[in-house]
């Protein structure tokens, strides 16, 4: 998976509040179109999940959301091979740790608007003087 030039590909779960916030941050980016992929409505394939792990240079287990109900009630303290984890994530998209942003071929987890700022994007209200001075990172 890759984002086109001047595009952000955001993989998120609209059923998660933090993911909806990240989508809001991505919507405010200047000069970049948002291409969103809501995994609560359109599941990723095994190939796409494997590609995300490869693009992020992480083991499949890193893509598991350790706070999801499915993980906590059915998978915690159990060992699974990567192929099994991939199949579980296809069937249970809430298991996928999101949001994930692609900017070009670079992929990363989005924790806050500052993750976009660190990727050198100007988000109105985050770098501008309109942002909350107590939330801004010092340069």
UniProtKB/TrEMBL annotation:
Pfam families in the record: ArsC
Domain of life: Bacteria
InterPro entries, alphabetized: Arsenate_reductase-like, Thioredoxin-like_sf
Family: Belongs to the ArsC family.
Identification of the protein by name: Arsenate reductase
Organism: Fulvivirga imtechensis AK7
């Amino acid at each position: 998976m890759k984002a086109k030039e001047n595009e952000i590909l955001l993989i998120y779960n609209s059923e998660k509040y933090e993911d909806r916030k990240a989508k809001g941050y991505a919507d405010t980016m200047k000069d970049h179109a948002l291409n969103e992929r809501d995994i609560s409505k359109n599941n990723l394939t095994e190939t796409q999940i494997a590609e995300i792990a490869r693009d992020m240079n992480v083991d499949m287990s890193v893509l598991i959301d350790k706070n999801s109900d499915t993980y906590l009630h059915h998978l915690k303290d159990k060992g699974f091979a990567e192929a099994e984890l991939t199949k579980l994530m296809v069937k249970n998209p809430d298991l996928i740790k999101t949001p994930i942003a692609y900017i070009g071929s670079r992929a990363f987890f989005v924790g806050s608007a500052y993750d976009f700022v660190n990727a050198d994007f100007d988000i109105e209200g985050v770098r501008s003087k309109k942002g909350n001075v107590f939330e801004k990172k010092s340069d």
